[in-house]
TrEMBL record:
Annotated keywords: ATP-binding, Nucleotide-binding, Transport
Species whose genome carries this gene: Candidatus Wolfebacteria bacterium GW2011_GWA2_42_10
Protein name in the entry: ABC transporter domain-containing protein
MF annotations from Gene Ontology: ATP binding; ATP hydrolysis activity
Keyword Acyltransferase: no
Domain ABC transporter, chain residue ranges per copy: 4-221
Keyword check for Cell membrane: no
Gene3D superfamilies the UniProt entry points to: P-loop containing nucleotide triphosphate hydrolases
Family affiliation: Belongs to the ABC transporter superfamily.
PROSITE patterns attached to this UniProt entry: ABC_TRANSPORTER_2 (PS50893)
SMART domains named among the record's database cross-references: AAA
Length: 229
């Protein structure tokens, strides 16, 4: 079942064409990874899908779709007077104490963190809180914009395993922007190569060959296909 269909999507910002003639589809329960060099328009694409940016073309979501969004980062001052519990309750009427505790458990956090100041917890914990925040309305599809951009390698692996487990457990459809090609290879069902235009679209095995990556990045890009039992 198609959950999203994009046809001839074009986006201009400040008179500059950022995305040109983008076309792709996403099936229910699928993990679509979006890859490309810096400035390729990946974040712009996600924001356009969310209805934040103006566009020409067609964005057709499944009717009554519920969407969750996790940005690259949440820049918080360490002295901000807001606890984790207060932040999560900003979602409004959909939030209950039981709902919050359930979502914290799903992202691997203890409910004791609710009393902590939002600016006092680690970056990795903050990203998990953002994931919990985005799932409070039990969305059908989750959009992730490089969710481990500021986290160390060990923390990145932990976050991606958590996201993968969430997707398996709740059958979310996932649209993920990532710079880590090894993670994309392991977890994505389909890969969209983006550099202002559609460069390639297919399964990780189809996409991750030297010619395709050179065409996308215009130079060397490290990728190693690890075998997993």
């Amino acid at each position: 079942m198609k959950i999203l269909e994009i046809k001839n999507l074009n986006v201009r910002l400040g008179g500059t064409k950022v995305l040109e003639d983008i076309n792709f589809e996403v099936e229910k329960g699928e993990v679509l990874a979006i890859i490309g060099p810096n400035g390729a328009g990946k974040t712009v694409l996600l924001k356009t899908l969310l209805g934040i940016l103006p566009y020409k073309g067609e964005i057709k979501w499944q009717p009554n779709i519920k969407i969750g969004y996790v940005p690259q980062r949440m820049d918080i001052e360490t002295d901000i007077p807001l606890t984790v519990a207060e932040f999560l309750k900003l979602r409004g009427k959909i939030v209950s104490d039981e709902n919050i505790k359930e979502k914290l458990k799903n992202v691997g956090l203890n409910e004791n963190i609710l009393k902590s100041g939002l600016g006092k917890i680690s970056i990795g914990q903050r990203q998990r809180i953002l994931v919990a925040f985005s799932t409070l309305n039990d969305p059908d599809v989750l959009l992730f914009d490089e969710p481990t951009a500021d986290i160390d390698i060990a923390g990145q692996e932990s976050i991606y395993k958590m996201l993968h487990q969430l997707q398996k457990s709740f059958d979310f459809t996932v649209i993920l922007v990532s710079h880590d090609l090894n993670v994309v290879y392991r977890y994505a069902d389909k890969v969209l190569c983006l550099n202002k235009k559609n460069i390639c679209l297919g399964t990780p095995k189809e996409i991750f060959n030297t010619e395709q990556l050179l065409n996308l990045y215009g130079g060397e890009k490290g990728f190693y296909a690890h075998k997993h039992q």
